[in-house]
Design brief:
This protein has one domain (5-91). The chain is mainly α and 99 residues long. It has helices spanning 5-9, 15-31, 33-41, 43-50, 63-84. The chain is built from 5 helices and no strands.
Length: 99
C-alpha cells in the first residue's frame, strides 16, 4: 500500500469505501507530520470527497453511508484542527467547514 492510498480511495464511488479511507486517513494524520502536510495541501479536495458541501459534487450512495461519512468526517476535521491547528497552519481552517 502506497503512502497516499487513502487519498486515492477517497475518490471511490461508494461512501462506505470513502468512510474506510477516511478512518485510515485519520490514523495516519495523527501519526505523521509529513502526512499531515500532504493532506492539508489537498484540503479543498478532502472537503469535497468527505463532506460533500458542494451540491455540484454530492457524496456517493448509499445515502445512509453518505450521511455517516459526512458526520464522522466533520468530527475528524474538528479534532484535527483542535489538535494540530497550532502546529500545521493549514489545519487551523479544517474544522470550519461550510454546511
Amino acid at each position: 500500500m502506497g503512502p497516499w492510498m487513502p487519498l486515492q480511495t477517497l475518490r471511490s464511488y461508494l461512501s462506505q469505501a470513502r468512510l474506510s479511507a477516511a478512518e485510515l486517513l485519520d490514523h495516519l494524520f495523527t501519526q505523521s507530520e509529513a502526512f499531515r502536510r500532504q493532506v492539508c495541501s489537498q484540503a479543498a479536495e478532502l472537503l469535497h470527497l468527505c463532506v460533500g458541501h458542494d451540491s455540484a459534487r454530492p457524496l456517493p450512495p448509499p445515502v445512509t453511508a453518505a450521511e455517516d461519512l459526512r458526520r464522522r468526517s466533520l468530527e475528524m476535521l474538528e479534532r484535527w484542527r483542535d489538535r494540530f491547528g497550532d502546529k500545521v497552519p493549514q489545519a487551523s481552517g479544517l474544522g470550519s467547514v461550510p454546511s
